[in-house]
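Appendix B. Extra example for self-study. Work through it before the problem class; the solution is given directly after the inputs so you can check yourself.
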Amino acid sequence: GAGVSQSPSNKVTEKGKDVELRCDPISGHTALYWYRQSLGQGLEFLIYFQGNSAPDKSGLPSDRFSAERTGGSVSTLTIQRTQQEDSAVYLCASSLGRGFYSYNEQFFGPGTRLTVL
Amino acid sequence: GENVEQHPSTLSVQEGDSAVIKCTYSDSASNYFPWYKQELGKRPQLIIDIRSNVGEKKDQRIAVTLNKTAKHFSLHITETQPEDSAVYFCAAIRLDSNYQLIWGAGTKLIIKP
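Solution. Structure tokens for the complete assembly:
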């Protein structure tokens, strides 16, 4: 079946512009995660959506970053007034959700490479 | 909160030899530890995981061991092959919480022919 998809695959923007990154999770997956991966670095958690619950925004680095998930499916990560330090690969992942004592595998998308000039 | 440290940052081994990557965690309540593999230019994929109620888990050439007392867990790859070249990430989480996975910084494994 189809995996997690993200668009665009590459985005080049000028400092100060806003960007929107899109994630289409695997159908039926109730959990959706956004991560940021700078070159040669690890995975930095940004935000987590689980069903209709309030999202966990604890990883967002500043108020320039926001995300929404419409209809429990597609998610959009928005970065306002982009800065050069925002340049990174933004990865989306989805899973079957998370119970209190269970954890389901996260399936990652191919990522969006963001370059801020 | 939880903190995960991963060592080494880069590991180079001869093809056919074994590779070991170690992670330490700080929260003794963490009870689930997955390992993800990210090949160059590709997305991370889960390769093995372990829960705190077991000390070791194997899947063909890969194995993970957990030492709860010392709060560390390790990934072991035997008979390494070129396709094992990748960045490996460990992570830890306390399942009975609302916390998120805490990831290690990654280990770049290079298999020399």
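Self-check: DSSP finds no helices and eleven strands in chain B. If your reasoning did not lead you there, revisit section 3.
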